[in-house]
Amino acid sequence: MSDLLIEILTEELPARFVDNARAQLVEHVTTHLDESFVGHGDVRGFSTPRRLVVLAHNVKEQTDSRTTEVKGPAKASSYDAQGNPTPALLGFCRGQGVDPADTYAVDVADKSYVYARKTVAGQKSSELVEAFLPRLPHEITFPKMMHWEESGFQFARPIRGLLALLGVEVLHWEIAGVQSSNTTFGLRVGKPKPITVTSPEDYMRRLREAFVIVDPAERRRLIEKQVDKLLKPLAFKLGENMGDLLDEVVNLVEYPSVFLGDLPKTATELPESVVRSVLQQQMHSFLVYDQNENVVPHFLSVRNGLTDFIDVVRRGNESVANARLLDAAFFIQEDMREPLEAYVGRLDTLIFMDKLGTMATKTLRLERLAVCATAYASVRPEEQAALVAAAHLSKADLATSMVKEYTSLQGEIGSVYLSRAGGSPDIVSAIREQYVPRSPSEDIPATRVGQLLGIIDKVDTLTGILGTGFNPSGSEDPYGLRRAGNGIVRTIIESREFVDLETLVKKAVEGYQATGSLPHPEDLQQRVLDYLKGRITQYFKEKQLTREYAPLENLPVVELGSIPERMQALHEAAGDAVLVTLADSHRRIQNITKGLPAATSLPADLLLTDSEELVLRRAAEAAAPQILQFLAARKYPEAIRTCEELAVPVTDFFDRILVMATDERVRSARLLLLCYLKYILGLVCDYSKLT
After folding, report:
1. Are residues 581 and 674 in the same domain?
2. Are residues 363 and 234 in the same domain?
3. Which domain holds residue 318?
4. Would you indicate the residue range of the signal peptide (predicted)?
5. 555-597 pLDDT, tens per residue?
6. Is residue 677 a part of any domain in this protein?
7. What global pTM score does this model have?
8. CATH number for 14
9. By Cβ atoms counted within 10 A, which residue in 48, 130, 430, 675 is the most buried?
10. 549-565 burial: b if 16+ Cβ within 10 Å, else e
11. Which residues lie below 8 Å from residue 674, measured CB to CB, with a gap of 6+?
């Protein structure tokens, strides 16, 4: 057995592309090996800004011989009236190298087909790998593609080298005019010479000698170690939320060298968010803090390369930082010559989205949603007043010079300007928090008004884009719909607040209809809700709570904020023996009443005469108002215990009563009783999915 090494060498890839491309390459190589029946061990991926690498361990030199079944033509078309093989069967047998007498029939979906069993001899793994290698670059997708040569082949960046080794054997493939070889290149400094690689083990060693660390996890550890070495003696540290920037920097360098630079006096006179944004957005550098979370006049950067002439690099970065911060100070000074309100009138010059009008019309929609907040959320009068005012000013900073230069500061700059002008703290916070969470690692808004403003902003965006007919699919997300959906879901779940998404989405659709036409308004409300339901499922999948979420997935979206508490209540009740009985009964109720709607009440004259029927009816009608009362008060353990009290009468009912009676009136009455139980139990959860 030998190791298989594959490398695609490129021009520098955008940092945000690297991790996903590496994962795709690992997935495709693994799939091709498995589909080719090539035995192998672990398949690992590595990457730098210039290369995507896969290393498959313990690849067998040859596949095992195997017996396989091959489906042929339908039996009816395989034989003539006299039972002789037809040309269709003979052609199939020739192609498979079998005798017609060795075929046999198998019924598939009520139709009979001819099958053949044949033995496939073992093949050299190197030949099978060479067969799929040219397909790999075509199978990797990127948010943006480019082509650079005559064939029109597209990739994120031009491919400059291909390498594949199975042990010491060099495998051959070609893509976009680039021929594979057993050479690669080290760190791009000066004019690096080609490196001849003799084996996968030799590849890792030779690249390390050429100052390339192929493993991104190792580069990250090296950066963190160097950061500690620089900052700990000074009692400094990086900020708590620097993980995303560190992920980016890891994919910007092949050999990291960390250095500490000084910030000019200007940095102490600017808002922290501005300094941080300038450093991150323009220089991919880190702001530095003391142990009390105060900003210190330093920044930390990572050079791609060795420490040679690092002082020159430091001075260059300090010069850039000084210039950028002076620009920021100038923009802020110029912007604040006018109040934030003045920029609201300029939003009609900024396009929100193609076919969806300007930021001015978006602001009007947000204001309308804020005015009717009591229809979809529990808000106090002062919260609603702050929400309306925040919605009015929420997009004003998009017209400022500062945000035009530093787009990541949208919302942040508006809050800074309003705060300096003496604005209400609630409105200031809401404007700042409207765009969060921007990533899975970022916290949701801390204030109630900020949460609501963020939710209505994202719902408006989601509604509008889906209303244009755009249908999100796959890994591409050009309009940030996934981020918007995740933000809505996370904010509601993690705040545990009541938000009636169904009503909110309905109001959002009405808002678009009032301010402009939608190209595809048909069933738009349901399409938005379906998309959000998909995001809810994905949220719990990523949290590895799919099994825990399953009993709650059919709850209406208005209950989204209650799901964490319901989960906790079900977890605490997991030891109740009666839950097993209740789960079986609920499953049986659902099977019997399949296709019938849940009943929210029972008529007084319902034809129920047997004692088990009457006992169950009395128990159900007594439990229903209690359960509703407990749910309204968010007392979920009490609601579960009340449902458990129904387990005995339900079991007795099923033990002694034939639901599907021959008398239609009796059968209908019993089915209606079960539909009522389906409604009652479903208010709490789907007990049938408890495991």
Report:
1. yes
2. no
3. 216-336
4. none
5. 999 999 999 999 999 999 988 889 999 999 999 999 999 999 9
6. yes
7. 0.78
8. 3.30.70
9. 430
10. bbbbeebebeebbbbee
11. 589, 592, 593, 659
Kindly give, in sequence order, each residue whose CB lies less than 8 Å from that of residue 18, ignoring residues fewer than 6 positions away: 47, 48, 49, 52, 216, 251
Can you read off the two tokens belonging to residue 304? 């791609």
Question: What pLDDT is attached to residue 119?
Answer: 79
Tokens of 281: 């957005």
Confidence bin at 475 (pLDDT 50/70/90): low
Q: Residue 496: left (phi > 0), alpha (psi -120 to 50), or beta?
A: left
Domain count for the chain: 5
The answer to whether residue 359 sits within a structural domain is yes
Task: Judge if 450 and 514 occupy the same domain.
Answer: yes
Do the beta carbons of residue 516 and residue 493 sit within 8 Å?
no
617: its two tokens: 């009816």
- Phi–psi pair at 174, nearest 5 degrees: -145, 140
Task: Report phi then psi at 224, rounded to 5.
Answer: -60, -40
Q: Single out the residue of 163, 253, 173 nearest to residue 204, CA to CA.
A: 163
Sign of CA dihedral 469, 473, 478, 484: positive
CA–CA distance, 441 with 621 (Å, rounded to integer)? 46
H or E element, residue 67:
strand 66-74
Same domain assignment for residues 100 and 159: no
Dihedral, CA atoms, 635, 639, 642, 643, nearest 10 degrees? Answer: -170
Amino acid 614: pLDDT: 94
Q: What's the CATH number where 615 sits?
A: 1.10.730.10
What does the alpha-carbon distance between residue 357 and residue 515 come to, in Å, rounded to a whole number? 9
Query: What's the token pair of residue 619?
Result: 């128990």
**Which of 76, 98, 120 lies at the terminal end of a domain, its last residue?**
120
Query: For residues 470 and 394, which has the higher predicted lDDT (pLDDT)?
Result: 394
